[in-house]
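fwd from M.: "can u put these together and see what the complex looks like"

so here's what she sent:
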Amino acid sequence: MSDGYISLVNGGIGGKVAKTLGLPRPSVLRRYTEGATLTAGPVLVLGSTTGTGEDSDIVAQLLLSTGFAAPDLEVHRAVLGTEHVSWGAVVLVLTEVEHPDDLSGPALDLASTLRSLAPGGRVVTISRAATEDDAPAVAAARQGVDGLLRSVAKELRGGSTANGIVLTDDVDLSAPSVGAALRFLMSARSAYVDGQSLTVGSTAGSSSDWDRPLDGRVAVVTGAARGIGAAIAETLARDGARVVVVDVPAAGEALAGVANRIKGTALQLDITAPDAGEKIIEHAVSRHGSIDIVVHNAGITRDKLLANMTPEKWDAVLAVNIAAQLRINDTLMRSPAFVDAPRIISLASTSGIAGNRGQTNYAASKAGVIGMVRPTGKLMAKVDGTANAVAPGFIETEMTARMPFATREVARRLSSVQQGGLPIDVAEAVAFLASPAAGGINGTVLRVCGQSMVGA
Amino acid sequence: MSDGYISLVNGGIGGKVAKTLGLPRPSVLRRYTEGATLTAGPVLVLGSTTGTGEDSDIVAQLLLSTGFAAPDLEVHRAVLGTEHVSWGAVVLVLTEVEHPDDLSGPALDLASTLRSLAPGGRVVTISRAATEDDAPAVAAARQGVDGLLRSVAKELRGGSTANGIVLTDDVDLSAPSVGAALRFLMSARSAYVDGQSLTVGSTAGSSSDWDRPLDGRVAVVTGAARGIGAAIAETLARDGARVVVVDVPAAGEALAGVANRIKGTALQLDITAPDAGEKIIEHAVSRHGSIDIVVHNAGITRDKLLANMTPEKWDAVLAVNIAAQLRINDTLMRSPAFVDAPRIISLASTSGIAGNRGQTNYAASKAGVIGMVRPTGKLMAKVDGTANAVAPGFIETEMTARMPFATREVARRLSSVQQGGLPIDVAEAVAFLASPAAGGINGTVLRVCGQSMVGA
């Protein structure tokens, strides 16, 4: 489950050999550790050079506000001489652009900072969503930000990333989810999120303690006996939640181990059973008093070329990966217990976005998850809830460790960070979407893929 | 500009060597030639196994209707014994699915046909767009089709492709653009379109002669002196249009050559000039009596990592690739000459979708094009017009021939058809979107990329 190549090429002799041969040299990613600073250095906030610049003032004030970060977070408003500074993050506030010409100034300002970005640094753009109701020039400028940020993400090295926050027109910069998204994308928690955009579509959400945002919340995680599910359970517990871990009876021992480790409870359950939703609610409420967060992580693969597909393999994958989620969500949304700004987070996959050879059944199920979260999010909004999906790319797990060597190596390196992610990277994204402050992010799909090339 | 590798591995000895070494063996793609049959064999129409199946009846009737194809087009409604048949196309009508479970029957029916698909065969799904207003199960089923078709596209070999037609809820199967899209995707004209969806969003559009759909129309193509632009001009002329070819004065001789070849007229023009739109309209109307189709193909690259970007390189690319288009469109949409179901087609790029290392300026401009076509399409709809973008992947041109060998080889092979496209492939997509029958396809982006891996 480990990628020994990364430590090899970051060592003295291995590094020299790799450099000489022109081999990819993935960096060790900066990941969250308790007590570490939010960013790898001071933060620079750059704004529009054509608008009023007011929006970048607001963002700078947000960064400096009480409780946003440690009191010693340095925030700058102009590019300094590059000798003495190593930026932890550069935030590019582009909410005021109205024509593609307006991108020139900020892009060149950003350009002048890239050599001074610290290892594990962050570029975050903040802009508005392009829609068909914009003037064509406005939509062109807004969508242009996307091309810029994805290209910058492909250029950065040293474990640095570039991501975007996109606000719909009726949401302003003071929405709780703007701050939450900015914090997440600037922090080490988003280590494997690269080249992506997070859309903030409403002012819903409430700020909370940044260190233990899930205090007082009860979470359920399916498929939690091992791998990504276990990491999600541990991360939600770290963030303060009481956690119910769910898995099939055959995984009972591993499941009990996870439950003990995080002081949660275990529920052995076949999620495809007609009454699975009722059993989940009953367990959570009777043992923990409520149910607030449900993470649909359980999933299976039964890979075959479609030409060789069997009804058994097709139906099993669709039953576990999507039909069970639909049935459980239906039960949850009819339950009076699931009404306190509840959260549904479903695991999708880059295969569900781009398709994958030999995975028609899996890709159909994961595309189904992507289709599901939009209307589910709309229904959940009635009780200040959200439904979102997280789409992992190549993650180092027991499952991927069994892939043929060459396939695994190609999948690892075909991303901007030139390596696979870890289960914790997916778990951090889930925990972020589960947090009270992320209530304005709804019906979306967040890729955790290191900007994998795999696309549409 | 040619990919000698394709003919090598399709030859006797070269083919054996490639097979032994496990090298990619891209097929020669089936491309349009006058008089050739629409498909490479009979067409099979499969429908929902859970709904009424009425929708697949309608599609079968459409295929058999007068004028849709040659009178000898064979249409079948059930999978035959595989001994004697080699399907030219399999059309999977999934408009009636309401739950992911409903995908099982049609997917397995499709599975049973794949070994009988002719070289250059086609799989086309027809389904409805998943929206946030659907029931979650309906949206899951509809989006699930996308995962299925993209995976099937990655599985097909022999120059076969899989693509989808997606109808919004208020559009029925009798809309002119459904037939037009089906014909395009089944035909050899879509050789390099793979793993994509075409959304039909309205019943606009009118059917026309399939062989010369642009008879009586006047088209303008910018950047038409060579490469993709010249191919577009030739293809629009082949389809019946009178064509104005536009390029910079420095390319005047090549431009005149193209104009002579297609019996069109040449206009030497800097498209970034403030009055470029007026000059284009004036030329087209005075020489040809009207202006109906404008293809924004002119584009430049000035590649540099953003860290090394100069204002000159940034601004030049934005000025030509997006600002000029915005200004010309503005002039066109205010002109009384551009009101007869007019068409705007802009060249985007997969770089504008996914970003590209060293192309922040180019990617921002091409993302800008993608942002622009949605509101422009909405404005154009007032006069039964449309605005769409075509996003080429790796196309064999003089420009790509100058790429370093290894970069070019990787770009060529990282697609489902394992080869670059030709300028004609882009031109066919443009001609399709320019046709009167495509009037229901508006504000969209059509990738012509052989299902390149390059994604988001």
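replying to her w this: Chain A has 15 helices and 13 strands.
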